[in-house]
Request: fold
Amino acid sequence: MAECFERVAILGVGLIGGSMGMALHSAGAAGMVVGCSRTESRLCEAKRRGAIDSYTTDPLAAVDGADLVILCLPVASIPASARTIAPVLRSDAIVTDVGSAKACIVDALEELFDGRGQFVGGHPMAGSAQQGVWHARANLFHGATYFVTPTGRTPCRATDAVTSLAHQLGARPVHLPPVDHDRVVAAISHLPHVVASGLASLVPELCGAFADVALEAAAGSFADGTRVAGSDPSLWAEILVQNRAEVLRALASFRARLDAFESALSAGDEAATRELFGLGTEVRRRFEAREARPEPPGQEG
Reply:
């Protein structure tokens, strides 16, 4: 049964936080949504867009009496913000976050919220290169995977509540331990951002005086391969550093695959080159087949 939260506090009302507020309202899943941010103009815009019902710049006031607290903050800021609000939380309040690196957050917050709220990590696989509440929309999470990362210490009630939250946002909840989550997102999100950035930044070096001509001529392969290179550098530098062990592991594997391509091409070995391409083709086809599957009945419950 879908859970309805009486008072939801969203700390950090940007693209993700604003979209969550709008989606909760759309689903009728929250009695009141309180937004908190350091910037009052952002909060005013969030209220104007229907993402929140009221706002404050004081996180203690925002979470006072809340039965659900969502930390929609930069990964590195989450532990400090959690320490600030912990003393005033209801003992039965559900606390979750949306950070894209989980092990570091879960390690810090599980201990902190022991007996002062019920915490479980979360990470919706949704977003946009366009940041800020001005780009928030209620359907941002529709069809997206929503990772929920319980551990052996996580209260079942917290896991169930955030799983219900994911459904009400229109997402597909998937449970993964924090360390496994970090390995998965390093492969499917963090490494692609690094690769896209590196590919985009190489155009001037590779094309020299014809860089502008190259960019004007670039079509689908360059557009698709570099789409996420337009993301906020400060945001992504922080994410990559927080998950650096798994990102470094992914980079080492990618470097080895590039070396294999280089060896095959250096030897003029068309068969080996074709085989390497085939590995990628097969995974891409599996991905496309999954994308084409219809949503299961009641998915957006």
In short: Confidence is low (pLDDT under 50) at residues 296-301. The chain has two domains: 5-176, 181-292. DSSP finds twelve helices and nine strands in the chain.
